[in-house]
Amino acid sequence: MSETTQARLLDGKATALAVREDVARGVERLLAAGGPRPGLAVVLAGEDPASRVYVRNKDRAAEQAGFDVRSVMLPQDTTQARLEEVVRELALDAGVHGILVQLPLPAQLDARPVIDSILPPEKDVDGLTPTNVAALVLGRDGLEPCTPAGCIELLDRHGIDLSGQHMVIVGRSMLVGKPLAQLALARNATVTVCHSRTRDLPARCREADVLVAAVGRARLVQGDWVRPGAVVLDVGINRGEDGKLVGDVDFAAASERAAAITPVPGGIGPMTIAMLLANTLRAAVASSGIDPALVFSPAPQGVDG
Ligand code: NDP
Asked: Whose CA is nearest to atom 3 of ligand 1?
C-alpha cells in the first residue's frame, strides 16, 4: 500500500452489531432448548459520568439481546465490605449468569478483592478473576476479558490473520495489554508489549504489522509511528479539549499510512460491549448443561461477506 492511500475503516459499531445479532439468536435458541434467559448484573459504584454512560450502554445492549439485566448503582462513598457483599449476593443468585463490576472504582475501594468475590469464576464475564486469567495464560477454556477479545473478534471478522504477524501493543494493563498479548500469542502472532518505560517507543511502533494503542493519552501515537500498510487498533478513550472523544492514535495522520484502522468512537468500544454479551451467553449456556452446539452458530459471520 502506498503512503498516501486512505486506510480501510474497521467499523467496530457495525461488527459489534453483527456479534450482538448472533448473541440474540443464541438467546432464542437457548430458550427454545429449555434453557434459562441469560442474566447479567452490572455493578456501578460512584458517580463517574463516563462509567455511567458505559453502564447504560451495556444495559441497553443486553436488554436488546434478550437478557435479564440487573443494574446495581451504589453511592460514591460505598464501603469495601458493602461492595463485596453486593457482589457475593449476586454471585449466589441462580438467575444471574454474569457479573460485571464497572471499573475504575472510587479511590477508597480496592478492585482486587471485589473481583475475587465473583464466585464461581464461571460468572466472571469480564474475565478478570485469577481462574480466568490463569486459563488465558495456560491456553485452557475460560472467559476472556472483553476488550482484548473484542480486538481479536474485530480482526477475525475482517479476515485479518495474526499468524506470523508482529503485534506491538502499547500499554500493559491487566484489562487490555497483557490479556491481548496472550490472545495474540495464541493466534501465533509475535508480540511486543510496550509501556511507560519503553525506550524509543516510536521505533517499536514502526516495527508493527498490527499496532494496538491502549494507553489513555489522546493522540500519543503519531502518524509517522505507523508503518505503511500496518493495521491499527485504537483502544484508548480520551475526552478532547472540545469535549469530544478521541483515541490514543492521531487518526487522520495514521489513516494516511495504515492499511486498516479503528475509529474512536465506534471502534473497540462497541466490540467490548458485544463480547460482554457473548461471554454472558456462554456462561448461561454452561450453567444450563445444554449442548452448546444447539445454541451457537457453526461459524461467525464475517462483515465483509
Ligand atoms: P491503564 O492506565 O491501566 O494502563 C495504561 C498503560 O499505558 C500502562 O501500561 C502504562 O505504562 C502505559 N503508558 C502510560 N503512558 C505511556 C506512555 N507515555 N508511553 C507508553 N506507555 C504508556 O489503562 P487501561 O489499559 O485500563 O486503558 C487504556 C485506555 O483504554 C484508556 O484510554 C481506557 O479508557 C481505554 N479503554 C477502552 C476500553 C474500550 O472498551 N474501548 C476498555 C478499557 C479501557 P506503565 O504500566 O509503565 O504505567
From this structure: 173
